[in-house]
Design brief:
Catalytic activity: N(6)-dimethylallyladenine + A + H2O = 3-methyl-2-butenal + adenine + AH2
EC number: 1.5.99.12
CATH architecture of one domain: 3-Layer(aba) Sandwich
CATH topology of one domain: Vanillyl-alcohol Oxidase, Chain A, domain 3
CATH superfamily of one domain: FAD-linked oxidases, C-terminal domain
Bound molecules: flavin-adenine dinucleotide
Shape: globular
Number of strands: 18
Family: Belongs to the oxygen-dependent FAD-linked oxidoreductase family.
Protein name: cytokinin dehydrogenase
Cofactor: FAD
Largest sheet: 8 strands, antiparallel
CATH class of one domain: Alpha Beta
Length: 514
């Protein structure tokens, strides 16, 4: 594995295939495959990049599939070579992983976006759904669904990610408190296993594979089609932010909101430490209706907590919605002068992070290293966590948004591969740091990694029962600890569906035996 040292320039790893079958034989076997799409051996440097921008592995080839059979043929070829070669295969969605998870050194990348050829197939009946390619971007699914007056129920904050990429993790956003994560809102999958078999799976067909693949970090198969649950789409969103200076009151209100039968559609929150500016605000395009009041609010250097909620509506029932929201807000204990409201279209709301992306791209601040840390923290430990992290570790700086919001475990499907804390309610806390180019200071890579380690060490030392979301580890022992009692099932599924450990080597969970 080739990890870019904090201060050095990024370099491309040379492909190395140490195997009994030489790389030239593999090369010509791949070249001879009869495919609907094609396989490239040149101009494939883009496959060495991801959003994390810290790991860079050069593959041998990139498969641009035009059919499911292209993927199955390629996996079958590599499977057929047995353990005489260490060649492996990684599906690459939109490449928005953080630590090389969608990369493979000297192996084959499956460029899933090239499979986006089939038209999306909609069922607009009572149990509405859409069948999409595993390489489809969520933003495209949104636009197509809206043409039918429908929408998926559960989202990520950013929609320029593929279905296969988010379902391999969980797919969590402010709708998860009600609908569960995206892995809860899928009826059926088509999967190419590590043996090259094409398998349809669902709650009642090949269930073990279905549950394994959901949150399965790409370890058991490549998702080629997903059947996504839909509901009627609203047109507008009331988007509200409220500030708190006391974490206990903030989190009590968040927990109240996710537990009550109120009709909010989205509940998140974030931490404001000492700084504003583009890097901290890029996930949002929130423009309060009263910008003067918003700009006049002074935090006086204090750490603040912002509750963010949204209510979907159609213009014809706006007055009912306003009454309904007033009733909900009257139960909360935010700082009364800090109610900021905005009204935007449903698409603007869901695609809000993309606006920040475009601004950052203009300034050359999008393709920087992103040493993100995402944690799932049991409700009983969140106050202890917040006191140490926001009171001690991160007091003087923040290098990007810090999201924090609770979800109900009862809304998460049991038995998937995603690992969550043991309690009924847990928080997602996401430290979404960006490294400033050439910085060796507090916004440099070394400093941020150091802060991440301090946070992780604190959790470990105090046995908070925290789990990483979008997890990344270097050793199998760390993975075993991550999976805990789910490890045996995960291992058994690997040996059933990908016995040679061909798929998704970038997670460093299993190593192909040669
Ligand atoms: P890739 O990075 O291409 O792949 C990710 C992993 O999935 C790899 O291991 C890959 O091999 C595997 N994979 C890809 N496609 C398939 C497939 N078809 N079948 C099987 N395995 C596959 N996550 C959230 O939950 N909520 C958020 O709000 C959120 N916001 C984000 C915002 C930004 C700006 C970014 C960069 C990421 C965000 N994420 C969020 C994380 C994101 O969901 C994951 O990083 C996701 O894996 C990225 O999808 P991708 O299509 O880019 O996948």
């Amino acid at each position: 594995m080739n990890k870019t040292p904090p201060s050095s320039k990024q370099t491309l790893a040379t492909p190395t295939v140490s195997s009994q079958i030489g790389s030239s034989i593999i090369h010509s076997s791949l070249k001879r495959l009869t495919l609907d799409g094609n396989i490239s051996f040149e101009n494939i440097d883009y496959a060495t990049k991801d959003f994390g921008n810290r790991y860079h592995f050069l593959p041998l080839a990139v498969l641009n599939p035009k059919s499911i059979s292209d993927i199955s043929t390629t996996v079958s070829l590599v499977f057929g070579m047995g353990s005489s070669t260490d060649i492996t295969i990684a599906a690459r969605g939109h490449g928005h992983s953080l630590e090389g998870q969608a990369q493979v050194r000297g192996g084959v990348i499956v460029n899933m976006e090239s499979l986006r050829i089939a038209e999306m197939h909609f069922n607009t009946g009572k149990k509405a759904y859409v069948d999409v390619s595993g390489g489809e971007l969520w933003i495209n699914i949104l636009h197509e669904s809206l043409k039918h007056g429908l929408t998926p129920k559960s989202w990520t904050d950013y929609l320029h990610l593929t279905v296969g990429g988010t379902l391999s993790n969980a797919g969590v956003s402010g709708q998860a408190f009600r609908h569960g994560p995206q892995i809860n809102n899928v009826y059926q999958l088509d999967v190419v296993t590590g043996k090259g078999d094409v398998v349809t799976c669902s709650d009642d067909q090949n269930t073990d594979l279905f549950y394994g693949v959901l949150g399965g970090l790409g370890q058991f198969g490549i998702i080629t089609r997903a059947r996504i649950a839909l509901e009627p789409a609203p047109t507008m969103v009331k988007w509200i932010r409220l500030l708190y200076s006391d974490f206990s009151i903030f989190s009590k209100d968040q927990e109240f909101l996710i537990s009550s039968q109120n009709s909010l559609d989205y509940i998140e929150g974030f931490v404001i430490i000492n700084r504003t500016g583009l890097v901290n605000n890029w996930r949002s395009s929130f423009n309060p209706k009263d910008p003067v009041q918003a700009s006049q609010f002074k935090s006086e250097g204090k750490v603040l907590f912002c509750l963010e909620v949204a209510k979907y509506f159609n213009p014809e029932n706006k007055s009912n919605i306003n009454q309904n929201i007033d009733a909900i807000l009257s139960e909360l204990s935010y700082i009364r002068s800090t109610l900021f409201e905005s009204e935007v279209s449903y698409v603007q709301f869901l695609d809000r992070v993309h606006i920040g992306e475009m601004k950052l791209r203009e300034k050359g601040l999008w393709e920087v290293p992103h040493p993100w840390l995402n944690l799932l923290i049991p409700k009983s430990k969140i106050r202890e966590f917040a006191a140490e992290v926001f009171g001690n570790i991160l007091t003087d700086t923040s290098n990007g948004p810090i999201l924090i919001y609770p979800v109900n475990k009862s809304k998460w499907r049991n038995g998937t591969s995603t690992v969550t804390p043991e309690e009924n309610v847990f928080y997602l806390v996401a430290f979404l740091s960006s490294v400033m180019p050439y910085s060796t200071g507090k916004d440099g890579l070394e400093h941020i990694l150091n802060q991440n380690n301090r946070i992780l060490n604190f959790c470990k030392r105090n046995e908070l029962g925290v789990k990483q979301y979008l997890p990344h580890y270097n050793t199998q022992d760390e993975w075993k600890a991550h999976f805990g009692k789910q490890w045996e099932v995960f291992k058994r599924r690997k040996s059933t569906y990908d016995p040679l450990a061909i798929l998704a080597p970038g997670h460093r969970i299993f190593k192909k035996a040669v």
